Amino acid sequence: MHNKAYVKPSKAASVVQIVVASLFLPFGIFLCSSAEGEARMFALIFMIIWIAACSSMIIYGFLVLFFRKPPAMTEIYIAS
Is a pLDDT exceeding 70 seen at residue 1? Predict the structure, then answer.
């Protein structure tokens, strides 16, 4: 029989995650929007990925802060 242990970030780690992702979001948008020439298309694709990654970090941070049972970041199977 296998038991499961769920690893979730602490509330303090979630606050730091929200702050860092909130700072990364405008930084990445500014850098990608300043691209010119042939790099413009690649910068646009990267900016979409950047916004999705930063947004998901912010959303997960809020889930951990405000929900009683947030989604687990990692599952560990323990053999007994």
Answer: no
State what percent of residues in the chain have pLDDT above 90: 40
Give, as one character, the DSSP assignment of residue 64: H
Task: Report the predicted TM-score, pTM, of the whole model to 2 decimal places.
Answer: 0.78
- Label residues 2-38 b or e (16+ Cβ within 10 Å = b): eeeeeeebeeeebeebbeebeeebeebeeebeeeeee
Q: What is the length of the chain?
A: 80
